[in-house]
Amino acid sequence: MDQSKFDVELQEYKRTKDSTMSPLVRARLDATYAALPEMSRERKVQRLRKAPYVAAAAVILGATVFTSGFISPVMAQSIKQIPLVGSLFSFIEADLGLRAAGEQGLSSKVNRSISHHDMKLEVTETVFDGTRAVYLLNVTAPNLKDGMFDTGAEVVKLSDAIENVTFSIDGKGQDDPDSLVTGGFFYSAGESHPNFLVFEEILKTPDHNSTGKIPDSFHAEVVVKLAGIDQAFKLDIPFQKATNNTIQLKPNAIQSNDGISFEVSEVNVTPVTTRLLYSVKLDGATSDKSIRAALFDDQGRQLTSLHGEGERKDNTLTFDARYASAQGQPKYFIIKPFVVKDHFAETVTDDQFIKGLEIKVDLPEKNK
Predict the structure, then answer these.
(1) Four-residue CA torsion sign, 189, 194, 196, 197
(2) Which residues span the membrane (predicted)?
(3) Could you tell me which residues come within 8 angstroms of residue 146 by beta carbon, excluding any fewer than 6 positions away?
(4) pLDDT tens digits for 258-314?
(5) CA 56/CA 96 separation, integer angstroms
(6) Residues forming a β-bridge with 144
(7) Domains with residue ranges and CATH for the chain
(8) How many CB atoms lie within 10 A of CB 210?
């Protein structure tokens, strides 16, 4: 089989009944899948060139900070009236890594804004740990109320009103081969802060598809286009690396069973993001399987899968995957390969895990 490259856009998080995929995003993803070549039965998710956020945002658009099971409508309305104290990241339920950043003071306050007529876009806070660059965008406009945006043609959720977003460093966006940017996604900051959006950009690591080195600080140019507005909004956003508390391990652990070989070659952990490099080698009987890895901490909690890149050569799949870091300081990770049944699925069920392939990676004493 000829070598093929593909992006793996995995978004697994605790979704609530109010968190739904945008019909536009679903339609574009379905169209993308339909257009993919019949190279194998492995489904490949590719970035949409004209809308770089769409593929990655697939199953996270509309995610809420306070889930419906944790907050009543009356309480949510009351919270809206209270000025935000501390970091908004500390309230995020769906991403434990970002919540830890807010609670541990790893976010940076910024004050970058741009206005057009009566509309204002303001970046209030950022998080950067060397892998993820995240920023909070507050939108103020007379046609925006409680997270619902009037485009002039229809009233939609604020997240659905975003037509396009570009993120570039030194003038290079994700489509530039020399760019540090690999892709991004965005979602609502939640019911208690409905006019805020959380934007995430995943940066390439120097040893994976990038010749550049990620600096400890940089400025990014962000351009946002909203439906019904003829003016694009351009912002210059500073990012400063917030932590050097990084664990880097190369366990090179291998497990094999039933025609499948699974290897974990590298694990990098910050308080915000956990990065996992692994590969899956298949024999002829299993070469049509789509396999990914789920990551669990020492408390049995599955870490939220964020994003990743993958490469397929012959019957070997190699992945560079990122997860939201676990709360606290885990003593070890359990990594479990599973067979993908539905790329849109919210959770992985027990019958999907492949027996005999799980790998345990102990973390050093300083992480306890």
Answers:
(1) positive
(2) 51-71
(3) 80, 194, 195
(4) 889 999 999 999 989 999 999 999 887 666 778 899 999 999 999 988 877 888 888
(5) 19
(6) 149
(7) 7-240 (2.60.40.1630), 247-367 (2.60.40.1640)
(8) 17
